[in-house]
Amino acid sequence: MYTFLDITFLVIHTAVILFNLFGWIWKLTRKANLILLLSTAGSWFILGIWYGIGYCPLTDWHWQVLRKMGNNNLPNSYVKYIFDRIFGTDINAGTADIWVAVLFGAALIISIHLNARTKRV
Question: Cα separation of 2 and 114, whole Å?
Answer without folding.
Answer: 40
